[in-house]
Design a protein that fits this description.
The protein is of the alpha/beta class. Helix content is 38%, strand content 22%. The protein has 2 domains: 3-226, Spore Coat Polysaccharide Biosynthesis Protein SpsA, Chain A; 236-296, no CATH class. The mean pLDDT is 94.
Length: 301
């Protein structure tokens, strides 16, 4: 039997967030929606995993699976997809908590808008402040002119990210913390690219959907609280991983000349930004995925 929605959540050493995230889905989702919650533990420490397992909800529609290796964001979610049988897939960060019945709102929206491949909820931080829920493709125009210029002068294709919207808006790509996909479209484009360990998966997959004439939409009636960065943290190592992922996506989806121009731009700009010097060797070498954290993971049973 196919359910309406499969909610896929990754846990990595933040089990308390994961449990609260699950609780927000259970408490706020209308009983008329048939859904499963699939939690993938991405090889957390054994203490964190045991805490999650020992406090895990005992419901038939909520399951927990553990990976023997940290496969990253895309890999963990693709593992979860293997256990999903639903018309829609919601990839939900464990540090993102529903404020209202997001599942029903987006299910109904997607049912009536068949050319939308993915939708997202409006994001707020833990203090109730509106934060961005989507972004623009990070190409040459963005680097040269900046987001503000593009939003002011090319607003049709670059809607304002910092606006608190009241009506749905079509965007380049949605926030990775909350991605509500039409399962058939997700399958058609091949799902997440598991070469990417962390960051820019959403830019990549939304671009591939657009090539097949499916749109990405913010539906602001659905609202979440997102504790930004709680699931990954911030460090030079994480910044390097994001830089690697960005260049992989550019090289994969765009022309080689664009890749070369953007790489040269960063090489030159980093020279006058001492805080970014740690990224300069990556840019000079060509930003290869051989430097990725993905290749440093070890199997741990």
């Amino acid at each position: 039997m196919m359910n309406d929605i499969a909610v896929i959540i990754i846990n990595y050493n933040t089990s308390k967030y994961t449990l609260d995230c699950i609780d927000s889905v259970v408490k706020l989702t209308d009983k008329s929606i048939n859904y499963d919650i699939i939690v993938i533990d991405n090889n957390s420490t054994i203490d964190d995993f045991n805490y999650l397992k020992n406090n895990f909800p005992r419901q038939d529609n909520i399951i927990l699976k553990r990976s023997v290796i940290n496969t990253g964001f895309g890999g963990g979610n693709m593992l979860g997809v293997q256990f999903a049988k639903a018309k829609y897939l919601l990839f939900l960060n464990n540090d993102a908590f529903l404020q209202n019945d997001c599942l029903s709102i987006l299910f109904n929206y997607m049912e009536s808008h068949p050319k939308v491949g993915v939708s997202t909820a409006q994001n707020y931080d833990e203090h109730g402040k509106h934060v961005i829920s989507f972004d623009h493709n990070k190409g040459i125009r963005k680097l040269i002119f900046g987001r503000s210029f593009l939003e002011k002068n090319f607003s049709k294709n670059h809607p304002k990210r910092k606006k608190d919207y009241t009506e749905p808006v079509t965007v380049n790509y949605v926030n990775g913390a909350f991605m509500f996909f039409r399962s058939s479209v997700f399958a058609d484009v091949g799902g997440f690219d598991t070469n990417i360990f962390l960051y820019f998966e959403e830019m990549d997959i939304c671009y591939r959907m657009q090539k097949q004439n499916y749109t990405s939409v913010l539906v602001p009636d659905a609202k979440i609280t997102h504790y930004q960065g709680a699931s990954t943290g911030t460090s030079k190592i994480i910044s390097k991983e994001g830089f690697l992922s960005y260049f992989y996506v550019i090289k994969k989806n765009y022309s080689y000349s664009k890749y070369v121009f953007i790489r040269l731009y960063y090489c030159l700009s980093f020279l006058v930004k001492p805080k970014k010097w740690f990224l300069l060797p990556l840019a000079l070498k060509g930003v290869h995925l051989s430097e990725s954290l993905k290749l440093k993971q070890k199997i741990q049973f």
